[in-house]
Amino acid sequence: MTIRPLERAEFESFPAVPGGPFSVYVHIPFCLRKCPYCSFFSLPAEAAPSMGSYLENLKREALWYGASLPPGARGETLYFGGGTPTLVSPDQWRELIPFLKETLKIADDAEVTAEANPESLTEERCRAWKETGVTRVSVGVQSFNDGELEFLRRPHDAGRAEEAVLLAVRAGFSAGADLMFGLKGQTLGSWASSVKRALSLGVDHLSLYQLAIDEGCEWYSSPPPGLADGYRMYRWSQWYLPQKGFTQYEIANFSRPGRFSRHNCAYWTGTPVIGLGAGAWGFLGGVRYKNEPDLVLYADLVLERGRGAAAAERLEGEAAAREAAVLMLRRKQGIRFSDFTARYGGEILEKILDTFRREVPRNCYIEKDGGLSLTKKGMRVANAIWSAII
Ligand code: SF4
């Protein structure tokens, strides 16, 4: 069996939230302007109806899920992503976060993360987040080099990015920065200086991404020429960051001890995720669903049916096991054989191990102590490994 798209009638009856731990992702789909490499669902802020009515619909959708929470359900992470969550005003945050925590039974010790873009992260927003229990702030820095930021057409410069990270650090959040490699004009030296500058500001967490030009973005039909080869930059980061006390706990993520993202780990371990908001993804009862990526249609769905899910697929049998294997291998821990066998059976595990032994170079993985994980080299060539497994 493979991945099976579900008919509307079928996914309207898919299970709500199972008992036990779950995560919540909230999508804020507005940005100051659209970046040319962006294929996420996001709209320029001025093209959108008021943020207020969007947040009202988010709350309605949360009420629908809240009403279906079984006993024992416990929200362990809450994540505000986008888009640009920092376009939500401080007063709107003061209302939204307590509402979601109460409605969705978010635990007192939950990890609460907000993504922030440098141009709109302010002291007042940090204050509102502090008051409402946000614990992590992830700043979309991308680069500390003005030329690289101009190339990406980001609305901030390096100085503003630095101020934003410092605001988050000084406000007492566990602060992280997203940085991008493989940019036009970028050198190993400019990449290294962006990474070092982030560390000097006191971040706990770094997410390092290669520039990807995927279908749906402005650059897709005519990609910019002269992009730098990112391989060396990524390899340098794998060498440098451990010396500074950072662990590479996942292919794109490095953190100081204990400061990894619990929310991201929920995705990689198959924890149920409620997705709220237009264009959000969720994962419940083995069903992966996507909310309507259109503000008006999303609002209509929420008003009519209580939630904005517009498409869904069920992962079954071997396809589900292979996808789970890939997600587990993204993490430093890799696949633990006993856990994997308990969930998916020993036969598929043997097939995956056989693929590794036949097709993946020995210096790309380590098989020992009842588990298999990728080496640093394996993480650098992970896409080729996924093709062999899936
Ligand atoms: S700020 Fe982020 S979400 Fe918004 S358009 Fe740029 S890349 Fe996309």
Structure description:
With 390 residues, the chain is an alpha/beta fold. The chain has 2 domains: 3-268, TIM Barrel (Alpha-Beta Barrel); 317-389, Arc Repressor Mutant, subunit A (Orthogonal Bundle), CATH 1.10.10. The chain is built from 15 helices and 18 strands. It has helices at residues 8-12, 51-67, 90-103, 123-131, 146-152, 158-170, 188-200, 231-240, 262-268, 295-305, 317-330, 337-344, 346-359, 376-380, 382-389; strands at residues 3-5, 20-28, 30-31, 43-44, 73-82, 106-116, 136-142, 174-181, 205-210, 247-250, 253-255, 273-276, 281-284, 287-291, 309-315, 335-336, 365-368, 371-374. The strands form 4 sheets. Strands 10-11-9-8-7-6-5-2-12 form a 9-stranded mixed beta sheet, sandwiched between helices. It has a 4-stranded antiparallel beta sheet with strand order 1-15-14-13. A 3-stranded antiparallel beta sheet has the order 16-18-17. A hairpin with a 2-residue loop joins β10 and β11 (253-255). α2 (51-67) packs parallel to α3 (90-103). The longest helix is centred in the N-terminal third of the chain and has 17 residues, at 51-67. The protein is globular and about 55 Å long. It starts with a strand and ends with a helix. The model has no long low-confidence stretch (mean pLDDT 94). It binds iron/sulfur cluster.
Write the layout of secondary structure elements.
Elements: E1 3-5, H1 8-12, E2 20-28, E3 30-31, E4 43-44, H2 51-67, E5 73-82, H3 90-103, E6 106-116, H4 123-131, E7 136-142, H5 146-152, H6 158-170, E8 174-181, H7 188-200, E9 205-210, H8 231-240, E10 247-250, E11 253-255, H9 262-268, E12 273-276, E13 281-284, E14 287-291, H10 295-305, E15 309-315, H11 317-330, E16 335-336, H12 337-344, H13 346-359, E17 365-368, E18 371-374, H14 376-380, H15 382-389
Parallel strand pairs: 2-5, 2-12, 3-4, 5-6, 6-7, 7-8, 8-9
Antiparallel strand pairs: 1-15, 9-11, 10-11, 13-14, 14-15, 16-18, 17-18
Helix pairs in contact: 2-3, 2-10, 3-4, 7-8, 12-13
The structure holds iron/sulfur cluster.
Iron/sulfur cluster is lined by residues 31, 34-35, 38, 40, 42, 82-84, 117.
